[in-house]
Batch of 2 targets.
Target 1
Amino acid sequence: MSQSTENGFTRVQLNTADAGAVINKNIYGQFAEHLGRLFYDGLWVGHDSDIPNTRGWRTDVLEALQKLAVPVLRWPGGCFSDEYRWRDGIGAAEDRPVRVNTLWGGVEESNQVGTHEYFDLVELLGAEAYVNCNMGTGSPREMAEWLEYMTSHSKSDLAELRRSNGRDQPFRLHHFGIGNETWGAGGFMRPEYYCDRYKHWSTMARVPWDVPTKFVASGGHGADGEAVTEWTDYLTKNIQPNFLCKLDAISFHYYSHPKKKDNSLTLEDLGKATAFPEDEWISTLQAALKMEEFLAANRAVLEENDPEGHVGLYVDEWGTWYDSEEGSQPGFLYQQNSLRDALVAAVTFNIFHRYADRVQMANIAQLVNVLQAMILTEGDRMLLTPTYHAFRMYVPFQGATHVPLFVVGSTDYVCEDRAIPAISASAARTETGELFVSLVNTHPHLEQAIEVAGPDSPLTSARGELLTAEQMDAHNTFDQPANVVPVSYEADATDAGLLLTVPAKSVLVVKVD
């Protein structure tokens, strides 16, 4: 809604009397694939490394991730999962076979990080486990045996094998994905073919009755045409979940590129992560905002085909995807991370909040050293990216109840032939009753004066953090790791109300009273 307010300010009007859906904490989930330097060097250095570590995991990275309250971690892929043999990653480390990671760089995969190590990381983070199985080159039997290995508390051979490898009690498996991007590199399947395969595989995917695991089908992706909803539509029309054939959620993937207009399988000429022109600032944010129409379309399909709300939507891959950094291995998908990425994350969070009734999980790609990472490492050095800071600032929204709002008087930010809303906003109330508001100013040049108003009693103050910088491509480096960091923000109401000055190209998260 765009119209002038009486005082000339943009107004964010909160409807605190009309509570929305609870924002599932898993919307702030992470994704860790065996890709590039994510695990090896980025997370896992081994027990004997000179780099300080906790049971083989880099202590500095682990402690930083713990501050994000990571709710769920998806593993081992991604495309890697479609060539992953789970038995390669168990047993004595020195006895594990070395394989070739054929998709991501053709490099050796040592299998030093396997099932036990993954669950150790999940438990250290206090996160839920989301494991994706190998439908591409695997079999229903292989999947079923892995499930038994992970979850059985019996005296079966596989459960005993797990015990002999050092884990007496079953692992807690919260989510299990059957297939990955089956529309593309997971097999270039039609929805009809995948649907039959999913029903077969999910019927064989058995866990103990007292282990409430959610089963996830491979769904569609953000692109022009039918791919946005055809998978959600076909699967929900043709799978009738029961105690044998389970379907709790359907995945959806979407990446934002400055230059490419769809999710076609190309890795060239996507746009640069830094030193980009203003038209790529707006094109990247415009691409990110398309998430709204994709979620709206999928929610409409789910409401029609699944009105009882049994099936959720997992956006289990999302984020920015640029050209790999010059000098890096292209198959490693290593890219810098700038203030622009923090804004992409924040506007996407605000969209997820509005669709919290159906979006039950989202997993940004990826955790460390890959795509829109939280953390970059180089030897024994580590830096936190602007995206990391956006995630940390939004921690209060995990598990909070969405508060509907509308924006009055906002203008568009226009660059050449593109236009996007200058302000993205969201609000939520925590379980303890605290009210948080997020405001994103997408305009790279103009600050915004915003009045935040409730329906009844006036708001008196705002306290929180602000993330911004002088340059559109401002980013942290190993020599200057604090170029882009949040600063404290305070504002008190005046006779004109609670007015917040939001600088150009910034993310603001405040608790309001």
Target 2
Amino acid sequence: MTIAALAAVTNRIIERSQPKRQAYLDRLQAAAESGPHRSALSCTNLVHGFAACSAADKDALSGDVVPNLAIITSYNDMLSAHQPFGRFPDIIKQAARDAGGVAQIASGVPAMCDGVTQGQKGMELSLFSRDIIAMATAVGLSHNMFDAALYLGVCDKIVPGLLIGALSFGHLPAVFVPAGPMPSGLPNSEKVRIRQLFAEGKVDRDALLEAESASYHSPGTCTFYGTANSNQMLMEFMGLHLPGSSFVNPGTEMRDALTREATRQALTITANGNAFTPVGKMIDEKALVNGVVGLHTTGGSTNHVLHLVAIARAAGIELTLEDISDIADCTPLLARVYPNGMADVNQFHAAGGLSYLIGELLREGHLHEDVQTISGFGLQHQAKEPKLKNNTIVWEDAPTQAGNEKILATIKKPFSKDGGLRMLEGNIGRAVIKISAVKAEHHVIEAPVQIFETQHGIRDAFEAGELNKDVIAVCRFQGPRANGMPELHKLTPPLGVLQDRGFKVALITDGRMSGASGKVPAAIHVTPEAVDGGGIALLRDGDIVRLDATTGELQALVDPKDWQQRTPAQADLSGNQFGMGVELLGAFRANVSAADCGASVL
């Protein structure tokens, strides 16, 4: 039944997308047939493209025979997830030369960290940075000097932006190269405990800083299963990573070997050889459905409800919120990784990780096997693990049994029958909710609302003791058109404290809650957003609202006549026009699509 349901969703996506998808594929084919032809460039064009290269690389690039790889990198040395990429280009360039190719850094893309900007003004640039990254990717590739591209990215908006940019050059093969997570630090359970104690005023800032420093302590991605590590999962489920490569720590022999292997594979799948694999053909409806299955079975980040829709559109595919919700209904939850459990991604990887999960899902028919991957095989190859033997990677079948049953489950005995990411709908609007970490007794909340127009207002009310009651906090005017749709993860500790005190608590917002969405029920991405006069703008303090994750209901229990006569609330958004660079993105706010359409300007 569930397998048939997955096939039905896939088929309706294919049928719905056919006109736009075919137009996209026609453009891809035309681009593939027209270039790159470096020998056809004028001498002036060509020498500008390789003036900084070594003599050997100049000779190689003077014709069409030797493949040239573009490196698109998100490197900076401020942020832990991106710092390891500093040494990758030298590894890639040497590996390319050893394999008879050339590699050049084509461009860098911005890479901001939501962990730094949480609760800060800079967060208002975060979501829009995805589309800026896509544009920067296209600028780098526009020189038309390349036969394939290697994308160095990890975190929240970076990987979706890189993939959207890659799909605009869909005639080129694309290989995504991860950097890996930092080694495990302070256990997640202890980190959560200290955060809540700080929210209650029971420990000071020095204690909080010490705990956070012990959690985020070295180069690599944060080890909780937020958007960054959900990105890595998606790339592996969609065949854009080498199998088993997502969660190998930086600076290890295996990490460097995988980077060299990714380079060799990129050279293998160019049009110069017999295994041409353009990314625009590879990322089709089935590949996207596999990504959505991966999101649900791992309890991944809610941000990907936005990103997957935008990625699909870049490939001429119409993926909807209903599709994502319906796939959740037929996808079992098979992983418990923080915040959907206490394990971190290193423990998840050690227990079998993505290779085990893909194998388990394929055995039971919960994934499409007949897709292309960068490895040149179907998805079955993604169920293999890399092993390093004599400094060479060999691929072995992943175990069919999890190494830790508290972290990884089987289809026959899942942690939950569905993925826990659901659509809500009612007179307040459409929203999504992630309940994989929410206890069953909190799946239905009916309580009075208290209205706020900033996240700081909620924190101030909590600290003043004004929220010690059954309450649904409404944080509105946080949508993409209002202020760029910031994450509101800073609200998790205070709302969690209220829930622990025994109150019925929930959040409703047209903003985001990130991959760290946890134990408090949160209706997020509410559409239409408040600035567009959506139902969330009609709510008044004291209205009784029912949030029912079991039936998909998000309803203000207000007399319909009263509701229809209400005027949408207005907010002073002048503070969103300037500061921390947001004034540069006014055109983005004016032209961005709604959250359920990907919140994109592209």
